[in-house]
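Please fill in the sequence for the structure shown.

STRUCTURE ENCODING:
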């Protein structure tokens, strides 16, 4: 095992992910190794089919490696039960999706409360934490509004508030500006920048160069391997080869992805 003082927040070693497509085995990830330290701001880039979405799914515990090692905050993902993996997705990884994944019939306060409901947090406490998260993203005056009463940028702010409500170890943002105009996208990226400045670890999946420029480090994938990495974390390797099983049943979008992750 790596020494605690040198342990990164996230460690992958020789991670392989294969899918059976018809009669052909596709290697979506082909021996990926990387470390990400606490409070890093990392962009993952690559063309369609490069493996970036598959890597995001593995990092987010939405999918599992066919072989290789994945450690999150020193814990081996392969050793976790489906319930433990679901709890990690709910409490320790904050997801921000391109399509927002909000409940249309619920007000945004309830949308932000959802991870806390699934986490068993008492009603008064979860309401307070959800309100604070919405204040943090500048939506204090919109708490009783439903998603269809908000702009695209405001909906993405709700999604960020929901991602923050459990104070996760990592914010994992998948094309967070993909459905937004340039000006609104810039506002969302400024918010992510501020979160990073406040100590948050952020992993951003994007195909846009100007979005990736917000990150301190860019990892480029091609054909399932890391083509370049502008600032690899100096961590030690952790020997092992492992696989894991994954459960579902959390925030909208997360459960669906966990049940049906696809190569990309």
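FILLED IN BY: designer on duty
SEQUENCE:
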């Amino acid at each position: 095992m790596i020494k605690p003082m040198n342990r990164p927040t996230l460690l992958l070693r020789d991670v392989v992910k294969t899918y059976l497509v018809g009669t052909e085995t596709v290697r979506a990830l082909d021996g990926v190794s990387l470390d990400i330290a606490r409070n890093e701001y990392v962009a993952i880039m690559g063309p369609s089919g490069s493996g970036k979405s598959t890597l995001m799914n593995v990092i987010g515990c939405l999918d599992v490696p066919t072989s290789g090692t994945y450690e999150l905050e020193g814990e081996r993902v392969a050793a976790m039960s489906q319930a433990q993996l679901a709890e990690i997705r709910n409490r320790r990884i904050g997801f921000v999706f391109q399509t927002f994944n909000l409940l249309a019939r619920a007000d945004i306060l309830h949308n932000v409360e959802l991870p806390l409901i699934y986490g068993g947090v008492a009603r008064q406490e979860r309401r307070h934490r959800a309100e604070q998260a919405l204040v943090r993203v500048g939506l204090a005056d919109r708490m009783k509004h439903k998603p269809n009463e908000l702009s695209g940028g405001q909906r993405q702010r709700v999604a960020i508030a929901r991602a923050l409500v459990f104070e996760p170890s990592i914010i994992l943002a998948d094309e967070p500006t993909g459905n937004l105009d340039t000006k609104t996208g810039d506002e969302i990226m400024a918010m992510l920048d501020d979160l990073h400045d406040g100590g948050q670890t952020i992993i951003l999946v994007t195909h846009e160069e100007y979005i990736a420029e917000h990150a301190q480090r860019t990892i480029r994938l091609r054909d399932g391997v890391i083509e370049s990495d502008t600032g690899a974390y100096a961590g030690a390797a952790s020997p092992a080869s492992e696989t894991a099983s994954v459960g579902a049943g959390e925030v909208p979008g997360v459960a669906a992805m966990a049940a049906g992750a696809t190569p990309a």
